[in-house]
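Renewal narrative, Specific Aim 1. Our central claim is that a sequence can be written position by position from structural information alone. The example that follows is taken directly from our test logs and has not been curated for this report. It begins with the structure tokens describing the chain, in the order in which they were read.
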């Protein structure tokens, strides 16, 4: 029996496992993940908006075993490509085929001042903190910063900006808060091409113009 090891039970790892299970009924398939749950990352934006909670959105990775896919809840600490072995915190696994789907690691400490002064939109633990901060904001400036390319989920910062814009409007403080966007990309959303980028830019500029107009009206 062929042994397939999949490192990471996120979007990539789970999709691969399901596809392989459907096409290779006799192979042994094992997912290794340090987390014991799966949650779609887009839920992080809904947590900021306050329409979903983490507790109600995560699914146990153990559920995958119902499909005949093994799951090991351990951190991967080493890969031996020559010996075809993977080392986890307390175990070792041999494999015939290896899929690496470990996602990305965040490194906010590489941006000077960010850990002390800002939040990481993609960090699950920061979601409720961002929400709290937005609910407390009465005036000031809010900056969205894309710090480098490529990055995970290109539209997410723009979605977050639009969600937060709507939250501030609901709190009747949008007029007193400026939202600025900083990105190193030559167009708004390179992955979607120039046309969609232009449409998205117009949406953001529309928000900006509306904000400026209502400020002027107040003056
Ligand atoms: C806010 C936000 C919104 C998004 N919205 C969308 C959307 O609407 N549509 C869309 O298609 N995509 C969206 N994405 C992007 C999508 O979530 C990612 O592209 C996707 O999760 C990447 O899949 P992955 O398998 O590479 O990594 P991940 O899904 O991050 O999975 C990696 C897995 O590896 C595990 N892991 C890491 N290191 C180790 C280790 N050493 N040992 C064991 N396990 C480990 C992790 O625990 C994790 O479960 C969004 C992302 C964010 C942050």
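The sequence written for that structure reads:
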């Amino acid at each position: 029996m062929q042994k397939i090891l999949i490192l990471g039970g996120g979007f990539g790892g789970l999709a691969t496992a399901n596809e392989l299970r459907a096409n290779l009924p006799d192979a042994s398939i094992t997912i290794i993940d340090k987390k014991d749950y799966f949650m779609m990352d887009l839920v992080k934006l809904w947590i900021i908006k306050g329409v979903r909670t983490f507790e109600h959105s995560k699914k146990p990775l153990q559920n995958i075993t119902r499909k005949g896919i093994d799951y090991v809840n351990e951190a991967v600490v080493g890969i031996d490509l020559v010996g075809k072995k993977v080392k986890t915190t307390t175990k070792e696994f041999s494999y015939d085929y290896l899929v690496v789907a470990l996602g990305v690691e965040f490194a906010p400490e590489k941006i000077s001042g960010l850990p002390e002064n800002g939040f990481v939109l993609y960090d699950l633990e920061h979601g409720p903190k961002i929400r709290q901060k937005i609910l407390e904001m009465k005036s000031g400036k809010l900056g969205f910063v894309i710090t480098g390319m490529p990055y995970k989920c290109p539209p997410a910062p723009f979605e977050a900006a639009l969600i937060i814009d709507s939250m501030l409007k609901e709190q009747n403080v949008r007029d007193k808060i400026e939202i600025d966007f900083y990105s190193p990309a030559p167009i708004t959303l390179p992955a979607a091409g120039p046309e969609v980028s232009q449409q998205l830019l117009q949406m953001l500029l529309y928000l900006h113009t509306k904000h400026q107009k209502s400020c002027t009206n107040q003056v």
